[in-house]
Amino acid sequence: MNYQYKFLTIIIILFASNCIRSQSLKIGENTEFDLGSAVISISSDIEIDGTFTGNNGKIIFSGSSGQNIRGDGAINFYDMEINNSGGVEILTDITVHGNINFLNGKIYTSTNKLLSSSGNFSNHSSSSYIVGNLSIQYSGNDTKLFCVGSNTAYRPVTIDLTDFSGTSGYLSVSQTDGSPLINTFPDSVTAISEIRFWDITKDESITSFSAAITLTWGNDDLVSDINHLTVVRGSEGSWDQTDLSPVTNGTTESGDVTGSGFTDPGNFTFGNIEGGTNVFPVELVLFSASVLNDIVKLEWKTETEINTYGFDIEKQLIGEDSYSNSRKSFEDWEKIGFVEGAGNSNSPRKYTFIDDYPGSGKIKYRLKIIDNDGSSEYSDVIQITTGDKPDKYHLFQNYPNPFNAATSIRFSLPEDSRVELSIFNELGELVATLISKGLGKGFHTYHYNAELLPSGIYLYSLKTDNYQMTKKMILLK
Known about the structure:
About 0% of the residues lie in helices and about 60% in strands. By secondary structure, the chain is mainly β.
């Protein structure tokens, strides 16, 4: 039997009010729930396996810690209000027909859909917005703002549709902090941002359109020349659409750029028009050292390079020099080699350097990254111990810990072994795989850059043929 509850009637009978507060709400299978024009404030989770109809009412999420919306039912809110600094996580698809008001806190959608039939949002800000996918309904030519961002950066997108063809349908936008795949550039574009990008999709109801896309930037987007900044569109690494006459507003610290004439969905981000100085540099993403048969192998990886001349390899050693049998102490850094850079590259590059005579004891290494104009900067320092052979497997505590963006993870192998070194979040979800290959007996150190991750507790796990260990590390930004 189906049941339909008119919430307003219940409230009038029980409370003589059109508002009710509840810790949680659960609607069972085969149950219809009609909110009417009432207001309900929930401080915990919502689980809907039946049908929830918002009608003209409002649902307020007012908890003091994170709240969830889950269930297998049909969820249709009218007005929705977020007043929870811990945020609200959507674990199923929901539709909101009225307004979403961000008093305090974010909405997290993950891979689920938050569909807004009206596209109405209020009070969204740098601390209150949607993390993940947002879908807004278009029925014709219209302009809608998508208040989306990542865990750490709010970068809303505005889509102005013209030449709309089709029936009423949804456009969806999500933001990814990190480098998109880049194989080719549009004509007259010399660089593409690898800081972040936005994925824009449409459903089949919208057959065609022409769109003006407005992207916003902040200080971390590394915009340096707004007069040569534009919007570029790509798919599967092929960047093929842009606007060479964009409209920009703001400063290099923050602003927005609008590109027009886009006719296809895909990935969108910032591009540098030929003659400009937007180079969108990306930091070194990996720097590691390992001991192999009494030599030290250094490996590092860059995501992009702009005017890179090369890398000086520098070493600092305090310990017994096994090749001269004398005590050596290098208070200053010693240059031991040079590796030529790629100049300008928009694809990942891997480098290797072998220190054939490392000495014994504790050794520190760093890279001096040199540009063609002579300017330079240093990488983080990594440390390794040579000379002693480990007699057991061991995963050391990362250093520093807590850390801001970069830390070193050290472990020992008493024998040659297949190694997997992985990073997980608190939910046990895989964040990154640092190593997945065979390594030789010895001490190994890997430098991990977590620049794109939000603050929090993470787990790093070492797995070999005969050993497994997991430890915690704390990222504080």
